[in-house]
Automatic annotation (TrEMBL):
Annotated family: Belongs to the CorA metal ion transporter (MIT) (TC 1.A.35) family.
Pfam families attached to this UniProt entry: CorA
Main location: membrane
Residue stretches in coiled coil: none
Superkingdom of origin: Bacteria
Described function: Mediates influx of magnesium ions. Alternates between open and closed states. Activated by low cytoplasmic Mg(2+) levels. Inactive when cytoplasmic Mg(2+) levels are high.
Record protein name field: Magnesium transport protein CorA
An MF annotation (GO) of this entry: magnesium ion binding
Ion transport is among the record's keywords: yes
Source species of the chain: Prauserella shujinwangii
Gene3D superfamilies: CorA soluble domain-like, Magnesium transport protein CorA, transmembrane region
UniProt cross-references to InterPro entries, sorted A to Z: CorA_cytoplasmic_dom, CorA_TM1_TM2, Mg/Co-transport_prot_CorA, MgTranspt_CorA/ZnTranspt_ZntB
Length: 362
């Protein structure tokens, strides 16, 4: 018989579990989230590596230039120090940390907060078999008089190449941090154009498959494509209003010489939005065409089934009549009754077959 533990032993185990200390999570340094931190004066990037506090102190001690800090998926604790240093609004910081925002432009005191939805085309063998065509992410930007802070969510649409390109163009950066915001907007919209070009090729291929004689494209596959188009529309359509506001002098943080650049980006977004709307309408037409082909095929199959049922009904009826067990029926004792009956059955079946064939039921 197993030994029963004593009450004291049970209490000792319980106290042992209660006295166990829960280890706090290992703090992750801010450098793990900072992609890059640069100081720009007169459009030129100053050499050296900077922390966010050293960078802002350098700019404000000079009285010119700006700081560009890039972050990748920071948590609330890590971004808090940057938020306090640059005076970022807590609501905007919360949006930047948790993401899942629609494209928008908001003004908090002397700071602008702008949200972009980034998209990436997912490579696949065929649009008729792909489960995902568009992958989305988010990019936020805080714009101040002497700083711009970008927060990226997702594993695509990085700004490393864009930063290198701007570092080689001091004249463009001479307009201040607003020029960086324009470059980011232009960069995001250029990706929109690339994705729409690739999707247009996919829709052309799907359209060809839908109207092929023996297509295997189903309405579910077209609905999947419509869902991906909807994902692209959510990134493109809401962005038009923020860009238009920036091009019309919404904030003094955007100099007048940058307004025309935002106007150009707004035109590109409008073009992409029109193309996305056209894609959605075309896919709706393809869905209707696919359903119409299915209905037509169903009607054709029903005609064939009906025609064959009518042909089979002839021998069934004759065999049923002569299968009755009556003593007095015509031709029962006739020598040529069987071959004549078979000939009549074949003749009637052949006649019906030719009639249905002529009327394209078979």
């Amino acid at each position: 018989m197993p030994a029963i533990p004593s009450l004291g032993g049970l209490r000792g185990r319980a106290n042992g579990r209660a006295n166990r200390t829960v280890r706090p999570p290992v703090p992750v340094p801010l450098s793990a989230y900072v992609v890059d931190c640069g100081v720009y004066v007169g459009g030129e990037r100053l050499p050296g590596r900077w922390t966010h506090t050293e960078a802002v102190q350098e700019v404000r001690s000079r009285g010119e230039g700006f700081v560009w800090i890039g972050l990748h998926e920071p948590d609330a604790h890590q971004i808090q120090g940057i938020a306090e240093t640059f005076g970022l609004h807590e609501l905007a910081v919360e949006d930047a940390v948790h993401a899942h925002q629609r494209p928008k432009l908001e003004r908090y005191d002397d700071t602008l907060f702008m949200v972009f939805r980034t998209v990436r085309y997912v490579e696949h063998d065929s649009p008729t078999t792909a489960n995902e065509i568009v992958e989305s992410g988010e990019l936020m930007a805080f714009l101040g008089t002497d700083f711009i802070i970008t927060v990226r969510h997702g594993n695509h649409a990085g700004l490393t190449h864009l930063r290198r390109e701007l570092d080689g163009n001091p004249e463009r950066l001479a307009s201040g941090p607003a020029s960086v915001l324009h470059a980011i907007a232009d960069h995001v919209v250029d990706h929109f154009l690339d994705v729409t070009d690739r999707i247009e090729d996919d829709i052309d291929e799907m359209e060809t498959e839908v109207f092929a004689p023996r297509t295997r494209v189903t309405s579910e596959q077209i609905y999947l494509m419509k869902r991906e188009i909807l994902e692209l529309r959510r990134a493109v359509a809401p962005l038009a209003t923020p860009l238009r506001r920036l091009s019309e002098g919404y904030s003094r943080l955007v100099p007048a010489e940058v307004h025309s650049y935002f106007r150009n980006v707004h035109d590109h977004v409008t073009t992409v939005a029109e193309r996305v709307t056209a894609f959605d309408e075309l896919l709706t037409t393809l869905v209707d065409a696919t359903l119409g082909k299915i209905t037509l095929q169903l009607n054709s199959d029903m005609r064939k089934i009906t025609a064959w049922a009518a042909i089979i009904a002839v021998p069934t009826a004759i065999a049923g009549i002569y299968g009755m067990n009556f003593d007095y029926m015509p031709e029962l004792n006739w020598r040529y009754g069987y071959p004549v009956t078979i000939a009549v059955i074949l003749g009637l079946c052949l006649l019906l077959y030719r009639i249905f064939r002529k009327n394209r039921w078979l």
